[in-house]
Amino acid sequence: MDDELDYGPFDGEIPERLEEDARIKGSSRNLSKARLCPVCPGRFTNVRRHVFHQHLPWYTNPLTACWTCHKQFGQNKMLENHCLELHNCNIADNIFKEEYQSVWTELMNGLLLELCQRYDKKTLDHLVEYVRTEAVFKQCQSAVFHWTDIPLLNFYNKKNRFDVEVIHAVFPPSAIYSLIHWKILALLLKGTEDAENLITFEKEISLYQCSIQKAIMVTDSHFHLDKMKQQARFSGLPIYKWKDGESVYQIRHLVANYAFPRRWPTIEEMGEIRRDRRIRSTAGIHPRIVKGEEMSVLNSQCKTMFPNGKFGISPFLLMDNKYPGYRATVCEMKLEDLVLETDSPYLKPQGHHEASPELLKEIIWKLASMFDVRSEEIARVTTRNARQLYNID
């Protein structure tokens, strides 16, 4: 009779179904500290280290790999012991060196292009879009790059001539280098039919001969970083990039406006903000709200008092029903006097799911139609104006 009883686990105890986990080297039964591996059933106090050691090709974390025998150890201490015991030498003789950077870049290119084939994607950009939309990758929402990854990723982009800046936030990915994050890479490998074979995959491919399309840079000259973080609770801004016809646009700089002293960032917060080199910060003063018929008067007065000032064109331009006079006033201005802003996340035009810096895309389209010029011209002139106004190098 007792053999038929099936009691559940006590609180804090891992069920017996995880008996297989106990055979996974390094797996932990400490529920308070251990985290589930995205690939195997095991729980580990350092999942990142385990995934690099067990589930990814040896070169994916070049800093903890032996470049003599091509093995991954996941941590420097294990690598150091390996070098002493097997190679009878100091760790410095077998670790990742500057001259290996090009080899590492081409190995990563080879792995990512192989994954493109496995997922039937024509380009790496298509693979990025796949990761953005598939539900399985939602678990990467809080993922960030380790600080030791940043110099490598900068070199990766430079070597491949990708005109993007590396940021700490990983998800949602909008640049090819985002695919290199250990968690995204592990989930991509796991989703293939022969993940075990891919762990030993090695192929060096140079992307030098590829035609890399340079993005047209855009600046959001006014948004509220503090409010966006408060609402979304995210660790950093994503890369804002979109395609319009044959042209690719990317928001290169964003000016975070702190309009209220009680929200001014602390010294520690400013240090964190400066880690994203796209962000500039200002303390702003909001003018009083004026009616549509007064805007043209205000326009001329401001240019008289502040001849070097610029007018920020916001999502009000997309709200014809609510602000009918706004468009007419903008038409009276010169492009040389305009900068683009979203005031996000406060302004959300009807029909848009969220208020974010990506609204610049709609504002550019609207201005191009109003001034009868190409979108590229709107982006070029307003970006130049913003760089001059905020002294952005």
Descriptive notes:
- The structure is a single chain.
- This protein has 393 residues and is of the alpha/beta class.
- Among the domains are: 98-198, no CATH class; 216-389, Alpha-Beta Barrel (TIM Barrel).
- The protein has 14 helices and ten strands.
- Strands 5, 6, 7 and 8 form a four-stranded mixed β-sheet that branches.
- Strand 3 and strand 4 form a beta hairpin.
- Helix 11 (292-305) runs parallel beside helix 12 (324-331) and helix 13 crosses helix 14 (375-389).
- The radius of gyration is 26 Å and the shape is elongated.
- The model is unreliable at 1-23 (pLDDT under 50).
- GO terms for molecular function: hydrolase activity, acting on ester bonds.
- Belongs to the metallo-dependent hydrolases superfamily. TatD-type hydrolase family.
- It holds the Pfam family TatD_DNase.
- Residues 66-87 form the C2H2-type domain.
- InterPro entries: Metal_Hydrolase (IPR032466), TatD-like (IPR001130), Znf_C2H2_type (IPR013087).
Short structural summary:
By secondary structure, this protein is of the alpha/beta class. The chain has 14 helices and ten strands. It is 35% helix and 11% strand.
SSE order and pairing:
Blueprint: H1 19-22, E1 35-36, E2 43-44, H2 47-54, E3 65-66, E4 71-72, H3 76-86, H4 101-118, H5 124-133, H6 149-159, H7 182-190, H8 195-198, E5 216-223, H9 225-232, E6 241-244, E7 247-258, H10 267-273, E8 279-283, H11 292-305, E9 311-313, H12 324-331, E10 338-340, H13 360-371, H14 375-389
Parallel strand pairs: 5-7, 7-8, 9-10
Antiparallel strand pairs: 1-2, 3-4, 6-7
Helix pairs in contact: 11-12, 13-14
Protein name: C2H2-type domain-containing protein
GO molecular function: hydrolase activity, acting on ester bonds
Organism: Mytilus galloprovincialis
